[in-house]
Specification:
Layout lengths: L1 E6 L2 E7 L5 E8 L7 E9 L2 H6 L12 H14 L5 E7 L2 E8 L1 E3 L4 E2 L6 E2 L5 H13 L9 H4 L14 H5 L18 H5 L18 H15 L3 H10 L22 E2 L12 E2 L15 E2 L1 H12 L6 H7 L4 E2 L8 E2 L4 E5 L2 E9 L6 E7 L4 E7 L4 H14 L3
Length: 400
């Protein structure tokens, strides 16, 4: 029905099924063998005719109509069972829209509310980065410290090269993923002890997005503060930012945490409906992400960072500055210290996303660097959250 060319090696095909469903076939071709498909996967999609009707006008909408315009568009997605979650849109420090949609727990018929805790996934990297920079502000560490100064138990196999905290923050360390990533660990330092694979690149040579970088930073937080990760983050970030609900507890422990829902592996279009995504439900968060949080806590984090309540002016500039190109993202992006940088409606933005296709979590935060707009979406189903956040960011960024 539609073809969307995302890059020279990435195309999305929107297709209709005989049973009235729609899907997106996401195709990547090989860089080494032009024309050869290197990966293909299927995602649920919405009726393109509905999507067209919900498109935001190019001229924007009057500010007093903005909440109503947001509400009916998200409600349409919720009625299609395409979006479960919460949404916040703010101008400056004023929240213009809050909304909650779909179930937090299908089995107990518990609906999502604006106070529901959602697995933040990789959005939590912003917290770890801010905590590291807070220690730099306090003069306790330097961005150019070798990681082994603080975590001597880290030994990438076959490498004696120096990796700095700066490189870990920007995913330019050469550290790849490691097999024990989604296993329970007593601490971040205990997790580091399982990282014995070889480097995948020379430190500083290129960006490779890896959760291991941030688990290593979590081990640094533990070593420098002498505290567990949650206590360190609470002291350095959560309390200064007035984030009263955020916790590293597992989904099973979080109390009012939303269950993550996805489609079964043999049912990628969801003909049999959503099923709980339980693989990581019993795991506590680590420094790479997974903290349970709310839209209001994330808004408090963004505004505290913007207003300089978390870091000095110099370190705030560091955190809000891109460092390296972020390849492989659906929109042109750069990466800094726990932040992704892009643009909406011609305005420069910062924030982070978390989750992925059929992961049972799809989150995104977009804040304009001029401080005017903040969009936060937390979702406990499918992969609609980031697309929704992008559309809202584009819409509000065009407003005068």
């Amino acid at each position: 029905m539609q073809t969307h060319v995302r890059s020279p090696r990435h195309v999305d095909l929107v297709l209709a099924t005989e049973r009235g469903r729609f899907l997106s076939a996401v195709i990547f071709t090989s860089a080494r063998e032009p024309g050869k498909i290197s990966s293909l996967f299927l995602l649920p999609a919405r009726d393109p005719a509905k999507v067209a009707r919900e498109a935001w006008p190019e001229s924007g909408v009057p500010l007093d109509r903005l909440p109503r315009e947001i509400e009916w568009r998200i409600a349409e997605q919720a009625r299609d069972q395409f979006f479960y979650g919460t949404v916040l849109v703010a101008r400056g420090d004023e929240v213009l829209f809050r909304g909650a949609y779909g179930p937090a727990n299908i089995q107990t018929s518990t609906p999502n509310s604006v106070d529901t805790l959602f697995n933040s996934a990789s959005v939590g990297k912003m917290f770890t980065s801010a905590a590291i920079l807070a220690l730099v502000d306090q003069g306790r560490i330097s961005l150019d410290d070798p990681v082994r100064r603080w975590v001597p138990e880290f030994h990438a196999a076959g490498s004696d090269q120096t990796i700095t905290l700066r490189q870990l923050l920007s995913h330019t360390s050469g550290v790849g993923d490691w097999p024990a990533q989604f296993r329970p660990h007593a601490s971040q330092r205990a997790a580091v002890a399982t990282m014995n694979g070889p480097l995948i690149a020379e430190p500083g040579a290129r960006m490779y997005y890896s959760n291991a970088n941030y688990v290593l930073l979590g081990a640094v937080l533990e070593a420098v503060t002498g505290k567990g990760l949650e206590e360190a983050l609470r002291d350095l970030v959560f309390r200064p930012a007035s984030m009263t609900a955020t916790t590293l507890a597992s989904g099973a422990e979080a109390g009012n945490g939303a269950i993550r829902y996805h489609f079964a592996e043999d049912d990628p279009l969801g003909f049999r409906g959503h099923v709980p995504h339980l693989e990581t439900y019993g795991l506590r968060a680590d420094a790479s992400g997974g903290a349970y949080t709310t839209i209001d806590d994330l808004f408090a984090f963004h505004r505290s960072l913007y207003h300089g309540r978390l870091l000095s002016a110099a370190l705030t500039r560091e955190m809000l500055s891109p460092v390296v190109d972020f390849p492989g993202t659906p929109r042109p992006s750069r990466y800094g210290f726990g932040m992704r940088f892009g643009s909406c409606g011609g305005r420069q933005t910062f924030g982070h996303s978390g989750g992925g296709p059929n992961a049972g979590v799809s989150n995104a935060t977009y804040a304009t660097l001029d401080g005017e707009w903040t969009v936060i979406v937390l979702s406990n189903a499918n992969a609609a959250g980031e697309e929704l956040a992008i559309s809202l960011c584009e819409a509000v960024s065009r407003l005068e």
